[in-house]
Amino acid sequence: MSRSTKPHEIVERALELSTADGCVVIADEESSANLRWAGNALTTNGVTRGRTLTVIATVDGKEGAASGVVSRSAVTAEDLEPLVRAAEAAARGAGPAEDAQPLITGTPASPDFTDAPAETGSAVFADFAPALGEAFARARAGGRELYGFANHELVSTYVGTSTGLRLRHDQPNGTLELNAKSPDRQRSAWAGRSTRDFKDVDPTALDAELAVRLGWAERKIDLPAGRYETLLPPTAVADLLIYQMWSAAARDAVEGRTVFSKPGGGTRLGERLTDLPLTLHSDPNAPGLECSPFVIAHSSGDSGSVFDNGLPVPATEWIRDGELARLSTTRHTAGLTGLPVSPGFGNLILDGGGDKTLDEMVADTERGLLLTCLWYIREVDPATLLLTGLTRDGVYLVENGQVVGEVNNFRFNESPVDLLSRASEAGRTEKTLPREWSDWFTRAAMPAVRIPDFNMSSVSKGV
């Protein structure tokens, strides 16, 4: 089906073709633009377009409703009916769906449902590209090399159902990652930003920040493994708490499988997780972090259900003033657990009431470590949510409020839930790019956090 065919027309045609008892059609119109650079010079750039159609058919049987899901890209007019039939065949061949619920009804139609999809292109970099060129010149003059990429994508999602829903959401998503290296490649520093439109990122300011960090790295200090007072920057806090939220399904907690399970049965809801006044929340309307105000589920899993497509997503406090307030549920798992319906999250914000910048927290540190970011994070024990991972692109020693040099990288072993319980300070909340999870999740705002005894379990060489 040509791109001249509007997405809402594809959705309507697929619904007309359906002979199932229920049908959900999701059309995703995707466009992206990117820049890449190395050694203070642009290397590649490009613009892409794509379309993906997902058909979810539901069939009512004697033992309950079954669902069949089929997704395909580049669907033509000739492909549309076979796609619908394939979803129906998958539903008829499947057993009853455990998460079966009546399809959502009653949500007002999006006023722009019949409009053409939004698109991004090279124009999104109109102001950013010249500033990047200036950053290249400054880096060259300062004896450092810049590497990295900027990517912007815009996805217009259209959701139509046999129960009358006609919803649309446009999601812009931009990421900037910048590495500065010394000419001998012995020193490296990283900075990243998340953005909706590249109007709020300044590559020259990032280059200046990285120049300072490369200067810190001129002095090398070897430290052994151990527990250190550690300042986690917002990006590291985001990576840890995103993983925590991915592990916060209510059903798993009720069944005793996660860190949020209560010994002896039940969940830890209402339990104090930290003495700091921390509130972890999600809000589809959070300024600069806007995301879909309704569920978009291309498949069913622990935290989502295809039967919930179109379900409104409200602002939700997961941790309120230090206490565990909500665990994520679908309509099905809410019924199983007796807990409120709390759909999955499209952004994540941690507010701690602090107003200090990371630099001000460094100035208040007698002796400790300052991290740049984390990577290669993996789960070790789901019962405690023990994670392991590595530091990367700069770990610095702070003494008497000053950074005195760069130390070796470490492997860490920590649980984000345990870290919250031991955190002694949280700074000012700011938008950040989670480095480890940037391919999956970018809309986060976090403070820097001070941990008195962060567990650097071993020294990591060659990272």
Description:
With 463 residues, this protein is of the alpha+beta class. The protein has helices at 7-17, 77-93, 128-141, 203-216, 234-246, 250-254, 331-337, 358-363, 416-422, and strands at residues 22-38, 41-61, 64-73, 145-161, 166-181, 188-195, 220-221, 226-232, 279-282, 316-320, 323-324, 348-351, 367-381, 386-399, 402-407, 409-414, 425-426, 430-432, 444-446, 449-460. Strands 3-2-1-4-5-6 form a six-stranded antiparallel beta sheet. A six-stranded mixed beta sheet has the order 11-10-9-12-19-18, with helices on one face. A five-stranded mixed β-barrel has the order 8-13-14-16-20. Strand 4 and strand 5 (166-181) form a beta hairpin. Helix 3 runs parallel beside helix 4.
Task: Please state roughly what percent of the residues sit in beta strands, choosing from under 5%, 5-15%, 15-25%, 25-35%, 35-45% or over 45%.
Answer: 35-45%
Number of helices: 9
Oligomeric state of the chains present here: single chain
Strand/helix succession: HEEEHHEEEHEEHHEEEHEHEEEEHEEEE
Helix content: 10-25%
Structural class: alpha+beta
- Shape estimate: globular
Sheet with most strands: 6 strands, antiparallel
Order of strands across the widest beta sheet? Answer: 3-2-1-4-5-6
Low-confidence stretches: none
Determine the N-to-C terminus distance.
Answer: 47 Å
Count of β-strands: 20
Work out the radius of gyration: 24 Å
- Rounded mean pLDDT is 96
